[in-house]
Design goal:
The protein is mainly alpha-helical and about 190 residues long. It has eight helices and no strands. The protein has helices at about 10-15, 20-40, 45-60, 70-110, 110-130, 135-145, 150-155, 160-190. It is elongated and about 65 Å long.
């Protein structure tokens, strides 16, 4: 991009051609406002930054198809809004699932046989966690058992936060499959 006044047509052209300076121009122009916008939804500064960064990654992936500055602004605000709402939905669903689990757990505690089932279930969960590949297991345990943030885990393991998130997500997929199979086997013997 040439020095001097910035013209919308030249910025878009440079952006479509993959110019990092053009991308940086839009990043600097919208990043702070988008973080504030996301924070209004999720009420968490770090999470808001993560969501906004993900939206900029999506923007970069579409850089060749965008043909005006207004489209960039619209894309970013719409993406941040959707990412924030999706996060809140996932969080609400997870909270509802946990509340249901706690309610079932309270009912089970009344019977000794249920204590055995509970202990066996926990053993199976720990066994499944121990079957995860080493790095995936480290991320999973730090995140869910030690309640650390992905950025903290990434720093400890010398990986990027995105890689830590990928390990966490893949671990959940593996565990869901593994534990669903165990549940089916268990129910077959009842």
């Amino acid at each position: 991009m040439p020095n001097g006044p910035l013209h919308p047509a030249s910025i878009i052209q440079a952006f479509q051609q993959g110019g990092e300076k053009a991308f940086d121009f839009f990043f600097r122009k919208y990043y702070s406002a988008l973080c504030f916008f996301a924070h209004r939804y999720v009420n968490d500064t770090e999470l808001a930054r993560d969501l906004v960064q993900e939206c900029f990654i999506k923007l970069w992936e579409k850089h060749q198809t965008i043909n005006n500055p207004g489209a960039i602004k619209s894309f970013l605000y719409t993406s941040v809004r959707n990412q924030s709402i999706d996060h809140l939905r996932r969080q609400k669903t997870a909270a509802a699932r946990m509340a249901g689990i706690f309610q079932i757990e309270e009912q089970w505690e009344a019977s000794p046989i249920n204590e055995v089932i509970h202990a066996e279930t926990l053993r199976n969960v720990h066994e499944a966690i121990n079957q995860l590949p080493d790095r995936m297991q480290q991320v999973f345990k730090r995140y869910y058992l030690e309640h650390k943030k992905l950025e903290e885990i990434a720093a400890e393991l010398h990986i990027t936060p995105r890689t830590a998130r990928n390990h966490k997500d893949k671990a959940l997929i593996f565990l869901r499959k593994k534990l669903n199979l165990l549940l089916l086997i268990f129910l077959a013997f009842l």
